[in-house]
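Structure tokens please, single chain.
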Amino acid sequence: MPLPQLIDELLAAKDGFGQERLRELDEADRAEALRRALDPADPDRIRTIGLLAALAATDPDTRPPLGAAIGSVLATGDADPFDVAAAICLATPLGTDATALIQGAASAGDPVVALAAWRTLGQVATSDVLDELAQVAPPPGDVVGDQAAFTLSVIAYRAGLTGFELPVLDDTDIIAIADGAETRSITRSDTTDADFELLSNSSIGDLYLLTPAREATTTVDCGDDHLLVCLDPDVLAAVPETLLQAPALAGVVAVLDPSGTGFSVRYLILTQPDGGDGVHVTLYQPDGRPVFTGHPDGGEIDGGRISIPLFAVDRPGVAPISLTVEADTDGVRLAGDSVGATEIATDRLAPDET
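Here you go.
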């Protein structure tokens, strides 16, 4: 039987699955996609599961077939570890329902599979499994253990729980823009309808269980990066008190994909009270590496407003910035110089001389 042409075209596309094309799929197309996703011999099996995941992001009826397809990969004893890892990462549209499906993979002997499981659990798991995950988490010290520790913190912060606080960064961990360095502007603007629609097409798992709200979202541009700062509406509604009371996953920063078909999370905004009149605010990559940090206290928290001077963490790959973020119940603004260096920090170890 010839394969539906539209599915072949979507699978062959180099960019993402645009919602406009996905809406063209009829029931026969979807049934064929599921058949191929369940077929271990299909060379495009994982890509087809990705197609189901793109559908499931906005269509709840596609989530059971997606779960079945991912489960079939996990149940294949001799499956390629990279295929298994890819299938696990595609479980995010299932939201919290993905937890039971992939939790066992966190203890997998293959580090590729375990790493994918821990990363994805950080996106979808809730605090009711936190103690259970903590019992099976490998110790920090390698890539899997470090990811597991960060995942436990993300789950705890999202629930406002203590006991999994991340290390506090201080002045010795940051780097400023050097005198005379070339810089580029960081600008803020209101989020357009088109951008917010693309963000809303992301699954709740892709956004770390955060539900975007228009009033809690703002646009930031720096060079080629087109970013949406998406705060948790509940955090914003009572800022800064919400940040001073308990650890929080205050929001995410999403970047427009190169294809222009959607946004993906680049940074997690994690906060924790300092035990006094301030709060530590740090932006982390999904792998747990800190990128930007700030510590507003005293006069920087005034009534219903918080002013957060952000600095780049001193490590390779991070561009120094001069930026102050202000937030209150009306939203987010930028202040200060609002610039970033055009050159990123590089490895400062001297190369071996031979």
